[in-house]
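Predict the structure of Metallo-beta-lactamase domain-containing protein.
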Amino acid sequence: MATQEDFSLHEVDPGLFLCRERFYVSSNQANIWVVKGSAKDLVIDTGIGLWDLPGFLKKVGAIGDKPYEAIATHVHFDHAGGLHQFEHFGIHKNEVNAISIGDNYEAVTFVNEGEVSKPPNEHFNARKFKILAAQPTRVLEDGDIIDLGNRKLRVLHLPGHSRGSIALYEEESKTLFSGDIIYDGMIIDWLPFSNLSDYTNSCQTLKALAPSVERVCPGHFNIFDGKTLKRLLITYMDSTQNCHKFGAGCLSAVSSVVLKGRNTNNVPAKCCFFCCCCCKCLCL
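Done. Here is the predicted structure for Metallo-beta-lactamase domain-containing protein.
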């Protein structure tokens, strides 16, 4: 059962909350956004899923007085790990299979012992942590509308970080929930199923939208405004030159081996994972 201490919760605006997993002490700690509507509530991203998120949100009154569902901005473990806790949830069509079978390679699952300051039980082993398979009740595509009654959010398919990455845009409040496509930190474009060309195209899409954005609620770190959004996008696109492409390619190769070694039955990759120091040095 969740306790209030398992998560932190902050009201950003009336009907908008920022929730975080208090005991996942990691640079991968994701933002969990709760958007309350007149007819329905929405939970955007779900964390790694070690603690009872819906139980906590109900206990503090953030959800539960009307229907609610979760939407994952992408299938990576730090955002989609808690989807199995929700009866109703959606994910982009490109990542339906990954969550349905619990594909921890595509979910880039990687948790270190030191990142979990309060294990959910005495038997917890970070090396054995996996996201659980779950069947989505909503399959998302670009342009879909999430209707909460008095609030409506549009799905933007923005591949690059992952092949099913999305953002959600609320036109009335000019708020963008950007997931991991853009945030004020180091951009990760070198994971399995990342694609530099797609990432650049997605950034161009967001750059065109930026004049209509006043607030960005990102997948990690702090909220920022539309001017900062444009600056971050331009900075990233300017950085994607040949040297960056070479570096991203090298990191992609290493991350692929490490993640296969941890999350699949690939024997050569497992040998590398358990015998090579890369798994200790790589920050995912």
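Residues 242-263 form the longest helix (22 residues).
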